[in-house]
Specification:
- This protein is of the alpha/beta class and 416 residues long.
- It has 2 domains: 3-97 and 214-249 and 289-413, Rossmann fold; 100-210, no CATH class.
- 42% of the residues lie in helices and 15% in strands.
- It has helices at residues 3-8, 37-50, 66-73, 85-95, 100-114, 129-132, 135-149, 154-171, 186-191, 196-210, 226-229, 256-266, 284-288, 303-311, 314-337, 360-370, and strands at 56-59, 77-82, 219-223, 238-243, 338-348, 352-353, 356-357, 374-382, 391-395, 399-402, 406-413.
- The longest helix has 24 residues, at 314-337.
- It is globular.
- Residues 388-402 have low confidence and may be disordered.
- It binds S-adenosylmethionine.
């Protein structure tokens, strides 16, 4: 049966997944703009049940690893790439097979040390730490950090860093209401309750329930820029590419880097994959992400993109050209590594630049067609539950602007 017919069998608002909350392993860690897991699962099931020979799935912008988990749930070998070392850590922890006994013993050790009054530890420091954390919170987080560092098993440490990131999220001076770092008002900072140790203990207990313990997923996670990492993949080696790419350059859209930099400042870099320079300043990750610091000034021959760019003011053009140009290059690599008969499953959003909607759905479609891929199905869904709901603040001279409330799903096939 055709994929378009299989997808059309569902009622239109089925894909909204109204009221669906994060469940199980998807609840671990804190990452912005994650995919709706059950939606990806349903779409992947359609693809996999239609072709039983599919073995591999790649997400070149894996973020928190939603598609990898769902691919794994469908018995696929999964590959993930992200430029953000925190996303890579999440992907690693969520696809690693943990041993029940090892976790149990870790719990006992950690709890003992957490509440020991004569436990000696070093106070952690980094530039601007006092801006983002209250003095007593720094002490508590430093104690947790020292305890994690004493763990011998690298995979246990990786898991514990993820748990610590959740404590950091709820105890820092960052407002967390947007993905950009913004300091809370003084009154709110004073009101933060320092229960870091208790929250950490509880987070470990809750999160470890969700870790994979039975099967051994074959997951390969890469840290780095997709446009470079994808060169390692052989032609026609991947059956399904499932992703939600960045919607524009990360410095002005969803700031994945800024949203995780406070975590990365506390995690020991020896337990992370990636370039340590990335955490040298608070916005570096976003500036090297797709459309960030590439030197490209040529817009690929994509008519919809060209028409869109021509409507933008001069000052906004170069960033958008860089993004679309990088996006085009990555897509060309994806078309190369996709197996014949394989599918691309993209979830994209149309953000606004200069008040003008950037038609990333139509741009993506035109790029895919130019790569010789065949359109199977394109449809939109309403984004009903979103952390950054319908407004993003802080757009210079424009006040609050509407963010996206719809996203487009594009399913394309490689036929030859
Ligand atoms: C929309 S998010 C993906 C969210 C993911 N689907 C999830 O469920 O968590 C896009 C991701 O692309 C990553 N990214 C941006 N530019 C990149 C690049 N050049 N190479 C690899 N990853 C990149 C960002 O760090 C971000 O995690």
């Amino acid at each position: 049966m055709k994929i378009a017919d299989l997808v059309s069998k569902y009622e239109e608002n089925f894909w909204d997944f109204s009221g669906v909350k994060k469940e199980g392993i998807h609840k671990i860690g804190k990452y912005p703009a994650t995919m709706v897991a059950p939606m990806q699962y349903e779409l992947l099931s359609i693809l996999v049940s239609n072709n039983k020979s599919f073995r591999t799935l790649l997400d070149p912008f894996m973020g928190s690893g939603t598609s990898l988990i769902e691919g794994h749930n469908l018995d696929l070998n999964v590959f993930g790439i992200d430029i953000n070392p925190y996303a890579v850590l999440l992907g690693e922890v969520k696809t690693h097979r943990y041993n029940e006994d090892t976790l149990y013993e870790m719990n006992e050790r950690i709890t003992k040390k957490l509440y020991s009054s004569n436990y000696v530890y070093e106070i952690h420091d980094f530039p601007n730490i006092h801006k983002w954390f209250r003095e007593d919170i720094i002490k508590s987080l430093s104690k947790i950090r020292a305890i994690i560092l004493e763990e011998e098993n690298r995979w246990i440490r990786k898991f514990l860093w993820v748990c610590l990131s959740e404590v950091i999220y709820s105890h820092s001076n960052d407002r967390t209401s947007t993905f950009k770092l913004h300091i809370k008002p003084e009154k709110e900072i004073a009101a933060i309750r320092n229960n870091c140790l208790e929250v950490f203990e509880k987070t470990i207990k809750n999160n470890q329930e969700f870790l994979i313990k039975d099967t051994n997923p074959i997951a390969t996670i890469y840290s780095g820029d997709s446009s470079k990492v994808l060169k390692k993949f052989a032609d026609e080696s991947i059956d399904i590419i499932c992703t939600s790419p960045p919607y524009g350059d990360n410095a002005t859209t969803v700031t994945y880097g800024q949203a995780s930099i406070l975590f990365l400042k506390w995690i020991n870099f020896k337990d992370l994959l990636g370039d340590q320079n990335l955490i040298s300043n608070y916005s570096k990750i976003d500036s090297v992400s797709l459309g960030g610091n590439s030197s490209k000034n040529d817009l690929p021959n994509i008519k919809i993109a060209q028409k869109y760019i021509s409507r933008l003011s001069e000052s906004k053009r170069s960033k958008v050209i860089k993004f679309i140009s990088d996006y085009y290059d990555v897509t060309a690599q994806l078309a190369r590594i996709l197996s014949v008969g394989g599918y691309l499953l993209f979830t994209v959003g149309n953000r606004r630049v200069d008040g003008i909607v950037q038609p990333l759905d139509k741009i993506t479609k035109e790029i895919f067609l130019e790569m010789g891929l065949k359109e199977e199905k394109i449809f939109t869904r309403n984004i009903l539950s979103k952390k950054m709901p319908s407004k993003i603040s802080n757009v210079k001279n424009k006040g609050a602007v509407n963010s996206m409330n719809k996203e487009t799903i594009l399913i394309f096939k490689k036929e030859k």
